[in-house]
Amino acid sequence: MSKLKNLGVNLGLTLGGLFMGVVIGEIGLRVARVEGSPRIGDFVDSAPTGFHTSDRDLGWKLKPGVSGEWKGEGESFVQVNSDGLRDREHTKAKPPNTLRIAVLGDSFTEAIHVPVEQTFWSKLERKLGNCEAIKGRKNVEVINFGVQGYGTAQELIMLRKKVWDYSPDIVILAFFIGNDVINNSPQLEYDRYRPFFVYDASGKLVQDMSFRDLAPIDRNERAVSFVDRLPSLIVNNSRILQVIKKVDLDIKKRQLSADFTALTTKNFNPPQDAAWKEAWRVTEGLIVTMRNEVVQKKADFLVVTIGDPIQVGRDVKIRKDFMTQNNIQDLFYPNRRLEKLGAREGFRVLNLAEQFQGYTEKYQVCAHGFDNSVPCGGHWNELGHRLASIMINRNLCENLKQSQVPKKQP
Predict the structure, then answer these.
(1) Separation of alpha carbons 367 and 386, rounded Å
(2) 269 CB neighbour count, 10 Å cutoff
(3) Could you tell me where the DSSP H helices lie in 96-171?
(4) Buried-most residue among 3, 26, 34, 176 (CB within 10 A)?
(5) Which residues pair with 102 in a beta bridge?
(6) Domain boundaries, the chain
(7) Is the dihedral of CA 259, 262, 265, 266 positive or negative?
(8) CATH homologous superfamily of domain 52-404?
(9) What is this structure's pTM?
(10) Nearest of 63, 102, 101 to residue 85 by alpha carbon
């Protein structure tokens, strides 16, 4: 009995000590005003920034009518119009004598990193109006449908859900080499709160909207801590658990950066495993499907490939070292693959990356990056948008000129 009594006393002292330690820890963190992270809720607004909100079909979208200052990567004043586009107001009915262009894309197209007047689509509108093929005969209107984080699947849904209401004459798909293939794969993409397309047993490309049924805790394992699996009542009333969650997520965030960098290097080589092969198959299927729907609407279709920063950097040595370290034979493999797809399926592909690379090397400048963010990395700065507008304008203007040339009679 004495042994059991001693065991009970020791156990009681241990538990009491732990309890007092927890109480002291809780009080100390609160007095020191050390903040943590509360438990993830039963509903999470899947919005990458305060300018976005959840959407049942697209995962997220820009919030109609919202406005404010952006001071993350780059700086700008963001104004979202009444239809949820980062653009001025546009009538859905196309004005007479107007060439209307719709631009689909991700964060490079949404472009909250620069003021509206510096974006490539805004510059394109002004430049194309001077094209000899239409100057004095037609006005040019470019409408921006880009949304941060979108993959080709969401852009196809956006085309169907919103773009056709505006009756565009030209549809531009701005395809970011860095992660668009990854975005289209439920096996490769970390954030699963988005629609995907998959091939069914008959070989048909169909929508997978199962993201609608995902609990917040299952949407992105890289944004969830083991603490989130504990009861809300305990976590939301424990500063210790909230701090533990914050530390856990900080560790995951650092690991995510390294893992994603390793993942994106696989963009530059032919796919070696089943997940990458299927990601490319779905991506190409989505682009061809988009082209088919554009042609059915009697509009013109152009794919513009946006280069990854490593492809277009001004430092040749950094590029060569990157290729050597990752056993990359052709840094423009994904761009050339899309060009071949266009040649095979009958649509134009404008590869910006190689032209960007030539410019940045020659003048030793950066088309990506901002003073308040990663130098020469991340999104396009004003120079990047300006170069893109010049190159896209040249392509569109030349095509408009050719379309006016009378065809020879047989």
Answers:
(1) 9
(2) 16
(3) 107-110, 120-128, 152-161
(4) 176
(5) 143, 171
(6) 52-404
(7) negative
(8) SGNH hydrolase (3.40.50.1110)
(9) 0.88
(10) 63
